[in-house]
Amino acid sequence: MNQFNIITIYPKFFESFFEHGLIKKAIGIRAISINVIDLRLYTKDKHQRIDFKTYGGGPGMVVQYQPVRDCLDANKIGKCYLLSPQGKTLSQKKLIDISKEEAVTFLCGRYEGLDQRIIDNLVDEEISIGDYVLSGGEMPAATIIEGITRLLPGVADSIDSIINDSFYNGILDHPHYTKPEQIDNKAVPKVLLSGNHQDIASWRRKQSLGVTLLRRPELLKNVKLTKEDDRLLQEFIADSKQEENE
Ligand code: SAM
Questions:
Q1: Is 112 a catalytic residue?
Q2: Whole-prediction pTM value?
Q3: Can you give 146-169 as a three-state secondary structure string?
Q4: In the chain, domain spans
């Protein structure tokens, strides 16, 4: 069981998150447990404030040290990850790594951010979900927990769907099709209806490699391609040129 503690000033934010999809299932089968902790319960301020003006002047408020320290003293399990746009950018590899940690604490920032001494003394690692700024760490924490949860044994219906997902093996996923076979002049690729599993696997690998080449060529540099992969990529390029000329 993976245990997640989330420290936030908006505990209700997570209510619907627990009630849907794989997160709901994972809680139900006890693959994960999530404990949301209200940071305000730990402030010594009589008005329950956990933020104050920034030293040196300037706009915005800053999360104070005392409530975070006391909250972590009472609730820290495993490493403390601060959600922060200044952290290392999240990747599928990082999700796989964290999924192996039994207990993790996520600290959600708000306002202008946290008193730097929290980061220096109390936080083990900062994680960003991308080069943009949100108003709080709640969505980033939910993003990470969702990304981890679907990797855990027994949570997804099929492990194949996980290992074929984009990034899991370093490249992007292949296209998917479902009913009907034909719609608005677009047909499902014939090979997918052939019933020949080897041909289907080969077509899917070719599409994965090709889509990665077109959209995220830098990913291919970190993947060990087999001779067959090289052949499939050449075939994908030839197919694309032929389609352009048709
Ligand atoms: N002043 C901070 C800065 O420029 O680095 C941004 C503070 S942001 C408005 C408030 C909080 O939202 C942050 O403390 C962090 O917890 C969260 N946050 C915002 N963007 C994020 C991102 N890309 N990844 C992870 N957390 C983020």
A1: yes
A2: 0.95
A3: HHHHCCCCCCCCCHHHHHCCCCCC
A4: 2-149, 164-245
2-149 architecture in CATH?
3-Layer(aba) Sandwich (3.40)
Model confidence band, residue 211 (pLDDT cutoffs 50, 70, 90): very high
CATH number of the domain located at residue range(s) 164-245 in this protein: 1.10.1270.20
* Residue 143 CB–ligand 1 contact under 6 Å: no
Distance from the CA of 131 to the center of ligand 1, in angstroms? 10
pLDDT at 163: 87
- Per-residue pLDDT band for 164 (boundaries 50, 70, 90) equals confident
130 alpha carbon to ligand 1 midpoint, in Å? 10
Quick check: is 102 catalytic?
no
- Residue 151 alpha carbon to ligand 1 centre in Å: 26
DSSP states of 33-66: EEEEEEGGGG---TT---EEEPTT--SSEEE-HH
